[in-house]
Design brief:
- By secondary structure, this protein is an alpha/beta fold.
- It has one domain.
- It is about 25% helix and about 25% strand.
- The chain is built from 5 helices and 5 strands.
- Strands 2-1-3-5-4 form a 5-stranded mixed sheet.
- The longest helix has 10 residues.
- The radius of gyration is 13 Å and the shape is globular.
Length: about 120
């Protein structure tokens, strides 16, 4: 959580105004949904399983703070740029899916969210 909040806090006020969180799985999404408000984080979106049906980010969301434990190629294909902003660590050495996951700042969606969203739908 701290790593994601730190990445978001480094955004400019203009970027924060159009930013959302995007995760690769429901565990990340659930943690950010539960604890994110205490860090003043924006809304979280995930395409995994049923979370996909909650819908895509708004079209105004042109900056994404993304946490993806898997291959980031989907993000690279979907945005004009994605830059590393941190790495998740739980601080206690517990190896899990999120340990070592990249925190990325992605900008300039290459299409509308309506068109991009189906590619983020994942079942597991």
């Amino acid at each position: 959580m701290r790593q994601i909040a730190a990445a978001y806090d480094r955004l400019s006020p203009a970027d924060k105004a159009v930013a959302v969180l995007l995760t690769g799985n429901y565990g990340e999404a659930g943690a950010l949904d539960r604890y994110g408000p205490a860090y003043h984080l924006p809304r979280v979106y995930s395409g995994q399983n049923e979370l996909y049906h909650l819908g895509p980010p708004p079209e105004s969301a042109t900056v994404v703070v993304a946490v993806f434990e898997d291959d980031r190629s989907l993000l690279d294909r979907s945005f004009g740029s994605c830059t590393a902003a941190g790495t998740l660590t739980n601080g206690v050495g517990v190896n899990n899916e999120e340990e070592g996951a990249a925190v990325l700042i992605c900008r300039k969606p290459l299409s509308s969210w309506k068109n991009l969203w189906p590619s983020f739908h994942r079942f597991s």
